[in-house]
Design brief:
Strand order of the largest sheet: 1-5-4-3-2
CATH architecture of the largest domain: Orthogonal Bundle
Structural class: alpha+beta
CATH class of the largest domain: Mainly Alpha
Largest sheet: 5 strands, antiparallel
Distance between the termini: 25 Å
Radius of gyration: 19 Å
Order of helices and strands: EHEEEEHHHHHEEHHHHHHHH
Strand content: 15-25%
Number of helices: 14
Length: 308
């Protein structure tokens, strides 16, 4: 069933999005299968499986969104709203126009111009995933996240393939440290996941309200949570609401900046990353995001299978 057709502002490179997602060694929620983007969403207790395909040109794009299966009766307006948050129709035209005026920046970001973003379904999901990624390799984090969604078992099956939604706060709140030990992250981070889930489930913490705050206020609120630092706060808000900060202490970004801006190998200090992007003012976060996306596309090979 065709749910809706989205018309994002150009330039819009859906093919680049699929190529980026194919670099994930252990796909978890955002799935590439047969040239389309697939995502299972839990909206008010009903789970729907969506398939998104692109047509038209980069300069006149259109995205057709189909409901492929559902468990329960999804409310279509609510499902459309959730999808709009997941695949936002934001425009980066002003950033691209700015970047064209800076030869150094344009040389870095031109290969990924038009790359759309995919956001998380909830702030809780974004924060939990980012906590898992703290201080471990990207591939190891993906493996842990894949294990977590399989452990929770929130899934929908279509044509023999299984698609997952993220664990709910009550599910993680009820888990023990022993339950989550297979994540292979530190006990400190496991306890942090469980405690945040407990507070969210009990109503002591309302992470979704962060979407309605200014980026500065939302960032400050996240930093008040013990165990949440600059990197986790910036990455969480980027995934949840599109906030464009510079995660200058991200090791991959440190290596990407060294490669693309300075022609070097290895990581550079976080302070130099911050200094590099500070010159771009309000576009610093977008410049950093595009730089990191190019790094992922060029440094990680695509999976041999589009769905594993």
């Amino acid at each position: 069933m065709l749910l809706t057709t989205l018309t994002p502002p150009p330039p819009y490179r859906f093919d680049l999005l699929l190529r980026l997602l194919e670099r994930y060694a252990h796909p978890t929620l955002d799935i590439v299968h047969r040239g389309a983007y697939w995502r299972a969403l839990n909206v008010n207790g009903a789970v729907a499986l969506l398939r998104v395909t692109a047509r038209g040109a980069v300069t006149a794009p259109a995205l057709d969104v189909y409901v492929m299966a559902h468990d329960g009766e999804p409310q279509l307006p609510a499902l459309r709203d959730r999808l709009a948050a997941l695949l936002p129709l934001d425009s980066a035209v002003a950033f691209y126009e700015f970047a064209r005026q800076d030869a150094r920046l344009w040389q870095v970001i031109e290969p990924v111009v038009g790359l759309p973003e995919v956001r998380s379904a909830t702030v809780f999901e974004a924060l939990a995933q980012t906590i898992i990624e703290q201080q471990i390799s990207w591939t190891t984090a993906q493996r842990a996240q894949r294990w977590l969604v399989e452990w929770a078992g929130n899934r929908i099956v279509h044509n023999g393939l299984t698609f997952y939604t993220f664990p709910t706060a009550p599910q993680l709140a009820a888990a023990s440290v022993d339950d989550l030990t297979p994540l292979k992250i530190t006990f400190k981070r496991i306890n942090l996941l469980i405690e945040i889930a407990r507070q969210q489930a009990a109503g002591e913490l309302d992470l979704e309200r962060l979407k309605h705050l200014s980026p500065e206020a939302a960032y400050a609120d996240l930093l008040r949570i013990k165990g949440i630092g600059h990197w986790t706060a910036v990455v969480t808000l980027a995934r949840a609401s599109g906030y464009r900060g510079v995660a200058h202490n991200d090791v991959a970004l440190q290596a990407a900046v060294n490669r693309y801006f300075y022609g070097g190998k290895g990581r550079i200090p976080a302070a130099l990353v911050a200094e590099t992007f500070a010159r771009y003012g309000p576009f610093a976060g977008l410049a950093a995001d595009h730089t990191l996306a190019r790094w992922v596309l060029e440094q990680y090979p695509p999976r041999l299978s589009s769905f594993t």
